[in-house]
Amino acid sequence: xxxxxxxxxxxxxxxxxxxxxxxxxxxxxxxxxxxxxxxxxxxxxxxxxxxxxxxxxxxxxxxxxxxxxxxxxxxxxxxxxxxxxxxxxxxxxxxxxxxxxxxxxxxxxxxxxxxxxxxxxxxxxxxxxxxxxxxxxxxxxxxxxxxxxxxxxxxxxxxxxxxxxxxxxxxxxxxxxxxxxxxxxxxxxxxxxxxxxxxxxxxxxxxxxxxxxxxxxxxxxxxxxxx
Length: 227
Hints:
Blueprint: H1 13-37, H2 42-50, H3 60-63, H4 71-80, H5 90-107, H6 110-127, H7 134-147, H8 162-165, H9 168-190, H10 195-200, H11 202-214
């Protein structure tokens, strides 16, 4: 879970932090969608999961396969940081802050970090043939999460439809996404991200998220009224 290397010119630090934080928001948003509906957009699921297997990258964007891989997260971030989230996203916002907290507990356990890194490297060999094997990858990553982060005293409680939460495939995907969220949180902190900065700079970050998303297509402007 290394910070991107400096082999190429990097975007402004705030933009890098925004992309990494969007990775956190996207993982949380996908967890919320799966827990409620049993499904989520495949392209963003793959981008978030694949970020777990990028151990050395030239840029933050490349961790997600390009900026487009985290567009859902950018749009979500722009909306949430301007207090425009609809009522149904309350749990998603809680997941984000839970991930920020859990990552601190994780980072305080170097032995656990080494185990996760080693097992992700092993799983990455299978991830190279990701197409058509999403469920298998989620199952493997879910096992890593259960054996490591699930043993910590603090656990993230996921709410949703009991039918989906009790489904093994959905449960595996949720745990895999939670680990992806931890990966993005760790990257965000490596880039200088801090919770107090997030709270103080939330509107600035929201506008950067909007501008980055707009580069990819239509985005909901953070100053617009929510639909």
